[in-house]
Amino acid sequence: MNDKVRTYHNITIVNEEASFLISSDDSILKASLKKEIPFCCECGGRARCSTCRILVISGEEHLSEANTAEKNVQRYFGLADNVRLACQTYVKGGSVKIKRIMNDESDYPLYLRNKIMGNENIGKEMRLCLLFMDIRNFTPFVEHHLAFDVIHVVRKLFYHFEEIIKEHGGRIVETAGDGLYAAFGFDQNAKESANNAVDAVSEMFKALEQLNETYFKKYFDQQIEVGVGAHLGKVAAGDLLLHGNPHQLVMGYPVNVAARIQDLTKKLNNNFIISEEVFMQLRYKPNAVHTVERLKGVEEPFTLYLLGEEFLYQNK
Ligand code: FES
Predict the structure, then answer these.
(1) How close is the Cα of 262 to the center of ligand 1, in Å?
(2) Which pLDDT tens digits describe the chain residue by residue (316 residues)?
(3) How far is the CA of 278 from the centre of ligand 1 (A)?
(4) How far is the CA of 70 from the centre of ligand 1 (A)?
(5) Does ligand 1 have an atom closer than 6 angstroms to the CB of 236?
(6) How far apart are CA 171 and CA 180, in angstroms?
(7) Does 40 sit in the ligand 1 pocket, CB within 6 Å?
(8) Which neighbouring-strand residues pair with 226?
(9) Second label for 163, Cα 20 to 30 Å away, from 26, 30, 211, 241?
(10) Three-state SS across 111-137?
(11) Domains of the chain with CATH codes
């Protein structure tokens, strides 16, 4: 039998001019959302962001102690003791007065409506294999071809690549000009996602070779080359509603690392480079050259494996 007695206390959120009774069973975030107070809560109340921050104005002694997860966030951001996470904080004693820290007028449509209506996937943390691909020497290509021919070439290439990525359980998250960003592992474990991503790149290189021979060289006098970088890590994946339609978002530090690895493909003169995290998951580990590199904007050095196109043919 649950011997905890539920109690109710008064809470005031000063910048909302809201005052109501809160149950000791509900976090401040949960109770506030029930009252349609548009709290930011990007991680869905799991102490994995800091967007639900509150400033405690009075009644600090009536709040639950910060748990380990909340203390980690407080430490990470160097937050003062009277700054708490609404999703982790409960009112246990008497009245409290708080202020919602992160807020502006766009919070209502952005956070409250979508979550209450249940039409936004607020996202979850996942270990994904992230892949960045870029067409090499794209600027001279654009310079010497008609704009719609350029679009045609990119469209044709990305169409083939998307099919291959989908067949290997991945999704294109973003395309930008001559590049694409894909993620693998939404429904797979880390090992499968890394192996599928590498297999997909192998297929993409083969498709590109064929397209070069039968199409790009033939009709546009152009040999297309790409550089690919891959990394595996924990990211936040969710949806953003744009024009009412869900748009996939995958964000986090590993995404930047994967993009930076791709940037190195030119400098290291190798068109497929993977991080050690991806390499260690491969069932077939090739005898690839590895190097330790500093990535732009990334503090620690990374061990990278230069697979290149050649490996992909040995892989079969
Ligand atoms: S909602 Fe992310 S920490 Fe509270």
Answers:
(1) 32
(2) 445 789 999 999 998 789 999 999 999 999 998 888 888 887 888 888 888 999 999 999 999 999 999 999 888 888 888 899 999 999 998 999 999 887 665 555 555 555 544 445 556 789 999 999 999 888 888 888 888 888 899 999 999 999 999 999 999 999 988 899 999 999 999 999 999 999 999 999 999 999 999 999 888 888 999 999 999 999 988 777 677 777 788 888 999 999 999 999 999 999 999 999 999 999 988 888 999 999 888 888 999 999 987 665 555 5
(3) 30
(4) 9
(5) no
(6) 10
(7) no
(8) 135
(9) 241
(10) HHHHHHHCCCCCCEEEEEEEEEEEECC
(11) 8-117 (3.10.20.30), 124-314 (3.30.70.1230)
